[in-house]
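Bug #2210: token dump truncated for Pyridoxal phosphate-dependent transferase?
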Amino acid sequence: MLADRIQPFTESTIFYSIKQWVQQTKATDIATGQPNWKMPQFIKENFKQQLENEDLIQDQYGPPQGILELRESLAKHYNKELNQEYLKAEDFHIGVGASQIINDVNFAFLNQGDEVIVFDPHFPQQRISPLFFGAKVVSVKQKYNQEKKKWEIDINEFKNKINEKTKLVVTCSPNNPTGKVFTKQEYQQLGEILEKYQKVIVMADDVYDYLVYDKAEYVRFFQACPQLSNRIITVGSLGKKFSCTGWRYGFAFSKNPELIKGLFTVGENSYYGTFKPGQYVMAKSLEQIYEPYKGSNSFLDYTCQEFQKNRDFIMENFSQIPGFDWQILGCEGGYFVLVDIKKMIPKILLKYFYKKENQGKIQEDKLNQPCACKFEELEDPDFSPDTAFCQYLIFEYNVVIMPTSSFYVNPDKDNCLMRISLSKKLDFYKEALQKLQKNQ
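Reproduced locally. Full output below:
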């Protein structure tokens, strides 16, 4: 019954499985990128005022590209950041979350057989969505530099992977899941290669652009490579900015009218706009985003400071838990930090490497014992170390962090990277820390 293109993706994702496990065990969830604090009060007040508005127009269909007021407000917001009158309302398109925008980009510009380049590890939708439209996804690795404690991209690998079939290149900065912030030099190196491939479009997924730590410089792709600005679509998220991800307001902007027209065409002929009253709320709230907030210069500054506090707490405390010989990797920005659990493999109980129906092949008295070996020494395991460790933490420590195998085009069987979200209240991380320490 299902279309062939859907069949490979019918199995529940790890995101869904984790939500089910959390509901089942009441585990402390520091895995998912979903804030557990309330959105700012000024949004609630703006929403209340909007609902009391007697103007019936707000209750009817809006323009597929989003109401003018919101697009104008977004243009002002980014022009303030860029310190120039660069963007106009017509450069923007509003969608049902950034995920919808990503899907729209693939829908509008990919043909059967086109190739898409992503940087592994990557946000899974950046890979799955192109496959729906018959494209091939090619990966370029992000590699962790132990000396610099930073993630880097291999420019030579990118140069070798791009070809005449490449139609779309996807960047994400700050990156989900690595926390990498692309540098101006990296963008320029990519741009120099892209100049030789005039048909390639760039989708810059910048949904975490307000979360750059240690007062580091943040540069956008179109700023580093202005000569490519007519081929770049930048993606953003108001749900992320305002810590209200369930409101589902994503957007894209580009200086190329043809690229925006492509998104408009998809939107007009599918979901036909987003919740209109909320668009007015977002427009007004963007005007307040730079006002002083809870002792900080602005709401964005306050949010970034809170996320950085979480990152620093994890770096300092989670790396010193007795019995947890894992490595917390460097993080420059965004919602997440990665952990390498390779040295923890021998401590994982053997049963967590196997599906229940396959545990019968293991001697029963060994199932609840640490595997006490390297991953490659296990007998035909069903799960990679990251997935096994995820289950181990949930059911033995009542704490959940995210395995990352689904963040790769072709994940290694022995993948050992786990993702911790920075989007929770600090008390949540203290609670998780106590649980991990208590069970030693």
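Output looks complete on our side. The chain has two domains: 4-30+297-439, 53-288. Marking as cannot-reproduce; reopen if the truncation happens again.
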